[in-house]
Amino acid sequence: MLSRLKNNTKILLFSLLFLCILLFLVLDLIWGSVNIPIEKVFAILMGEDVKTSWNYIILNFRLPKAMTAILVGAGLSVTGLLMQTLFRNPLAGPYVLGISSGASLGVALMVMASVLLPGVFGLVYVSLGSWALVVAAIVGASVIFLIIGMASIRISDSVSLLIIGIMFGSITGAVVSILQFFSTPEQLQSFIVWTFGSLSGVTWIEMRVMAPIVLSGLVMAMLLIKSLDALLLGENYARGVGVSVNRIRVGVIICTALVAGTLTAFTGPVAFIGVAVPHIARSVFRTASHKVLLPAVILIGAVLMLCCDMISQLPGNQSTLPINSVTALFGGPVVIWVIIRSRNVKASFA
Amino acid sequence: METKKYFKDILTTKQLSIGYKESKGPDFCLLSDINLTIRRGELVCLLGPNGSGKSTLMRTIAGLQAPLSGYTLVEDIPIKERNFKEIARLLSIVLTERLSVGNLSVYHIVALGRHPYTSFMGRLSDKDTQIIKWALEQVGLTGFANKFINQLSDGERQRVMIAKALAQDTPLIMLDEPTAHLDLPNRVEIMRLLRRLAKETDKAILLSTHELDLALQAADRIWLMSKNQAVKVGVPEDLVLSGSIEATFENNTFNFDRKSGNFIMHYQKKAAIQVVGNDVMGFWTNRALSREGYQVTCEEVDDCKIILDEVNHSWKLVMNGNQKICTRMEDLILELRKCEMHRIINR
Fold first, then answer.
1. Looking at residues A99-106, what average pLDDT do you find?
2. The domain B2-103+168-257: what is its CATH number?
């Protein structure tokens, strides 16, 4: 029978995970099609001017990419955990409320709707330049978020809310399909490339927008910890110990929309991480307590995304695999292994 | 002064109306003008048939549902719906529903009882940990602190939730059918525990239940609900003697026997049978015979009698001019059924 982990074991696991992040961060900076020796990488990070092209690759390409990986891993994992607790459903993830569907609808409209309304979207597309897709995704995600947010205030029942979220996903998916049907092959391709997801598209200027929003979302999640634990006992018990379940529900939804919406806007949808990491964390730390799980999913999510980023970067090859496929392809077996080994996913949601 | 404090009312409901607000049309009112009280250290059982509004009354008192009119006071503080944090310091609840989370430790769950008192991040002070330890001790689960909730039996789980309610340190504890999933020893154990807690901690405890016999034995007072009738309140014995319990649970398939405090099922009566002999063996023989559909009497019945032999633990059946000695009740019942068959064939 599995027993509770001792506090010392937990501290050891946390330090190990933290070391893993540092290790993988360094590896991720070294890893790539251009071979840069490790001592040169450190020199560049210290601010030395080693070689202009190397400096450019490390500082303007690999470093923001690694940081994006960490933010995506941490952010999506935390929002996945929040959704799983709120809906008490092991299949819930950051996208169940239709946030990514909203973003993809925005992007699809921006890329493909020039067929329907050539004037307006074409003009916007050209004037926004590289920000066009980001803005489209943010607008799309925000619209869905506003609708779900208003629904969450009116409907005080989490299951109904989950179903509404899934319905919105289907509706937006249908609209996207129709747009795809009427668009040109070139438009179709640029949309599909967006759905592959990419960590390398984030520049420092974009990072200045993305990082603060994601970090403030994580801080918000920390403030919810105490009440989330009470929510594990069920909504009635949570109310019984003084939790305003409606307020927590709205808080969790705002936090998720902010973090998942922003990340999706900048990197495209990254599947799987948000659903899988909370399960890995529960198995490793053998607890449902958010005080442990929240830092755990941040660390595990970041480590996993750094790994996935390296895998997507095939060495000796200029091309990168789509990150959205890599996360599922290499993360899926990990989760299956964890579940078969510990068999306690059911215990968390029985 | 002391006695006044002792008889203080913890819970008071004033002209409370319970029911559901309808978005269209008039409200659906289950019961109105409810005025009830619970004193310190009192264990009150809420009894009533299904659909009489027990759950609605419990939910309304607990502030989980708004009253249609009137209000509830706990220690003279009004319970307002939606102010959950304040309510959580006045009353704690234990529900029928089984927890759906597994890998939370017993200690962690009991610690959640301290939720209304802890700071923003939920850090436990020394006082909090002391109260949690005390609560676990009270329900006899001190050694279980580090176990996961899914490793416990249903009875132990219910005790964990009672410990959580104790840790919440409220003057009133409300339990919604706390013994619903439990076997008989655990049901008795939980009732004894609640009774002891009410006496020792001076808390007021209100529980809804369908366990009439347990409630009659353990409750200080009973609130008796029945559809569209005012709640009857009283000491169990008063309610039995006045016939209120009988009237509430009246039904044509069984009735409440005031003498034994039991429910007696009505069976179809086939024929009269005489039982000679009394005592324990006679009592259980009577039970078996009435289940088989016989009208048991002590009066002389011709050619249909059972004579008990308590010394040899056997029954002598005299029927249709034959005699038969049975050593087990099962044999006796089989014999009776055979005689019955003969009678039908011969007819």
1. 86
2. 3.40.50.300
Residues of chain B with pLDDT under 50: 1
Residue B225, token pair as written in the block: 């609900």
In terms of residues, how long is chain A?
A: 350
* pLDDT computed for residue B1 by the predictor: 47
Residues of B in contact with A286 (CB under 8 A): 103
Closest approach of chain A CAs to the CA of B120, in angstroms?
A: 7
Task: Give the DSSP letter of residue A183.
Answer: S
Buried b (16+ CB within 10 A) or exposed e, B152-176: beebbbbbbbbbbbbbbbbbbbbbb
Q: Kindly tell me if the per-residue pLDDT of A34 is higher than 60.
A: yes
Q: Which has the higher per-residue pLDDT, A118 or B261?
A: B261
CATH of domain B271-346: 3.40.50
Residue A1 has pLDDT above 50, yes or no: no
Domain limits, CATH 3.40.50.300, in chain B: 2-103+168-257
Cβ contacts of B92 on chain A, cutoff 8 Å: 240-241
Which residues in chain A have Cβ-Cβ distances shorter than 8 Å to B143?
none
3-state secondary structure of A317: coil
CB contact under 8 A, B101 and A288: yes
Q: Which residues of A touch B95 (CB under 8 A)?
A: 234, 236-237, 240
Residues of B (114-133) whose Cβ lies below 8 Å from A: 115-116, 118, 120-122
